[in-house]
Amino acid sequence: MTTLAESADLFRHIAADKVALYRAIMDVFAAAKRQYRLQLRPDEVLAEADWGGAPPAREEVALALAQLAAWGNLESQPDMARVSTLSDYYRARFLYRLSHGGEAVEVGLVAFEQALRHRAELQTVALEDIDSRLQALSRLLADTTPGTLLDVAKAHETLRDLVRVFEDLADNAQAFMAGVARSLELQRADATAVVAYKRRLIEYLERFMGDLIRRSDAIARIIHDLSAPIDAVLLRVAEREARDAAPDHADNRAVETLRRRDAWRERWRGLRGWFLATGSEPPQAELLRARARAAIPQLLGAIAALNERRSGRSDRSADFRVLARWFAGCASDPDAHRLARAAFALNPARHFSLEVPADDDLPASTSWLDAPPLEVSPRLREYGEAAPRGPLPQVRERHRERELMARQFAEQSSAIDAARRRLASGRAIRLSELGELDPHEFSLLLTVLGEALAEQAGPDEPVERLSGDGLLLIRLEPLAPETRARLHTPAGTFSGRDHWLTIRPAQEAT
């Protein structure tokens, strides 16, 4: 068994002085492993390695190989194939190959590099693959009549593909939700690159959200239909896997079957929770859609910060550089002290309210360098206030305020839903026929009109698009230029060119 010290020696070549030499040698052995070559000689390593310049001496390569073998990354054995004389027999010649620990280190370094280069992706292809795998599983169960047996091999293959695609989608989505705005990269980018990236990102998110909305309902419907028969399928698949895992004992096979069935059930619950609500938790697909929508304001905030820097506003580092020049220009130390007191607010703290012992009471003109230290309560450092005296205040009951807020929130939600039900009727209606609108209906109408007109190619062209939240499908057809529509609201009268407006839920449209 490899000890902790021996495992640490396997990574010593990464921090050694000749790390470039060691890594070039290990890359040769990793390539030989991929090419199914068992062992290499020092001259083969010298000829095949990418040294990035002039190759080292043969003796230096031999010493590096011996050091890697001492650390455990390589294994060596005497090379007896080229022995032709007695002097060759006594000369040290070795064949080298990757050790088990060295191979594990190379695999780990490759995985580490891939993880650093990994970019989060919102995979619409994965959604299509999940849909197709679920449909294949549903057809397989539908073709299984009471008189026939389930094709367990096909079901097992379909479930393996489904789990592999779903895990890839979940990992990429988690990485995307962790940091999509790329704030650090945007802060160092120029304006042209930021604008181009903004356009590509918004198109990318709109395409993914549209595909997610279209496919989520179909996937959720298939998962719901498979909820009843899937447990029996998972048991049969677990039995098939357990035949290879424990083929020698009936009791062990039964335990292994139950363990694998529980594992498949957990994967299925994860897939179900992605597209169907579980208890009070919304589906993960909705959370991902909300995070994708939130990425656009984050990107706009990064662009605003970039524009602020380009507009010539000074930042803190620039202020400190100017202040340093002022200090360097001071004629004497008293001038520098006065500048420090003014710049860093080192004046006497007349608002200081802590009790000071009578012996430590000093005039306000005393420098803080000459004053004795004063003990400050940790609570004051952490919370900005000292520990309160006397009994603790009673906890205030706020159930009335919470009830009021909940009631206001419910009233606002019902008003918004009512406005959506009135406008998103799915029927084409002229703007002039909408009549009087309440504030919620008028706010929703302005939102959909603004989103539709932003996509309009010309004033006489019809336009159709999804709303920004992906819930509504909007179609706007302009009428003759001389037509007018007037909408009366509590805030005033809204007028403009008349249009045919059709709003319907996106789910009904698909």
Strand order of the largest sheet: 3-8-5-4
- What share of residues is helical? 55-70%
Question: How many structural domains are formed by the residues?
Answer: 3
Number of strands: 8
Global mean pLDDT: 76
Q: Structural class of the secondary structure composition?
A: alpha+beta
Share in β-strands: 5-15%
Shape assignment: extended
Question: In terms of per-residue confidence, which ranges show pLDDT below 50 for 5 or more consecutive residues?
Answer: none
Order of helix and strand elements from N to C terminus: HHHHEHEHHHHHHHHHHHHEHEEEEEH
Care to give the gist of this entry?
The chain is of the alpha+beta class and 510 residues long.
Q: What does the secondary structure layout of this molecule look like, with pairings?
A:
Layout: H1 4-9, H2 19-34, H3 42-48, H4 58-71, E1 74-78, H5 86-90, E2 94-98, H6 100-117, H7 124-142, H8 152-178, H9 183-188, H10 191-225, H11 230-245, H12 250-275, H13 284-310, H14 316-328, H15 333-344, H16 378-383, H17 399-423, E3 429-430, H18 439-454, E4 463-466, E5 472-478, E6 484-489, E7 492-497, E8 499-505, H19 506-509
Antiparallel strand pairs: 1-2, 3-8, 4-5, 5-8, 6-7
Helix pairs in contact: 3-4, 7-8, 7-10, 8-11, 10-13, 11-12, 17-18
